[in-house]
Amino acid sequence: MTDGSAWRQPGSGAPASNTGWGARPAWAAPSSTQPTTPQPAANSWWSDALADPWRDPDAPVVVVKQPADEAPALEKPPPPSSGPRVGIGLVLVVSIVTALLAGALGGTLGYVFAGGGGSTTLGGSPLGNAEANNRAPDSVAGLVKKVLPSVVTISVRVSNGTSLGSGFVVSADGHVITNNHVVEGSSGSATVRFSDATVASATVVGSDPESDIAVLKIDTNGLPDSEVVPVQFGNSDAVQVGDPVVAIGAPLGLTSTVTYGVVSYLDRPIRTSEGGTARYYAAIQTDAAVNQGNSGGPLFDAAGRVIGINSVIGTLAEDQSSAGNVGLAFAIPINHARRIATDIINTGKARRTVMGVQVDTTYQNPAGGARLATVEAGGPAEAAGLKTGDVVLSVNGKPIEESWDLTALVRRYAPGDTVDMQYLRGAAKAKASVTLVADAK
Fold it and tell me: What residue spans carry the region label Disordered (predicted)?
């Protein structure tokens, strides 16, 4: 898993560093074996996407343009593998199964064609174009048709190339929400591309690295009102495991790509710390395919409402070049992201939710929990009766497995919310209700 900062491989100099988050899972270049496929112009802002590597466990889903390298010389093909060979028995079994399937298919078709005196018409009358293109509004195709105009592909110049990510329009005057790591390191200007290929300029209004949220403002001059279509917000607190979801973005620069899945876990504590900035949130976990370039893109519910922002993926790979989606993607809940984005638009900075404690990061216990290293005098935790040395076991019923889970789960809530915590003092378990506040930053 990665923190929110974008992974960028420098064109020269020292390679970018990545910092993982311990034992927990974290986030291939497209084939070029078809030289006849048209390639984008070298100066196209999205042309880099076809050569970008996949995400790694320590990189968010953002595409970064790399300087072109000279093609390596062709090498001799490797000698035949000395590994285990497929046995003749397996080949025979596969051949037999294939023959049986083919025989069954042939027999069935023979029966169909023989029926009715040897004259058979397959299918009915072709559907007209209008009827063929109709889809129920509550189908996936109907949902995509409704929301696609609100999703944009974002391109920004960074020190070592171009960073490519996704975003979505949230207001009629052109505000767009994306991940901070998509625009991090930019000059503050960006280019957005709509699903109908319309391109417009945008500026970065502000961002919060610790929440991995950024807000852009599209220059709407010259754009028709119908071009800027805000999304509908859902309620991420109402999401349940098993709910169907749709992710839309630009994985590997493939704009307006749609993937489908379900919510597989809720309030999964995520911590990433690449680039020196620690980011925490309680994520919506999904099996919808999310890859490099999906960063900042929306996760929709079955009604076409945004419930999350796709940000990081889990992977079994140990390096960036071989990492790819394995059905574990994580989105920032929209209730959290919307609150942060509103703060950025209204005040220029975001409020972070705290409970007035410092956790002991060295504490390790197979049973989990976060031990409180300090409890601030007069803070929310002290007012609730918590003391230094207490071990917090859960927040509103969500178990704490690692010490930093406490920070991630607390930030899920807004300042002023009250949460129930179960904690351990010595050998005795107890409960406390803590009213959270905004930090002083």
Answer: 1-53
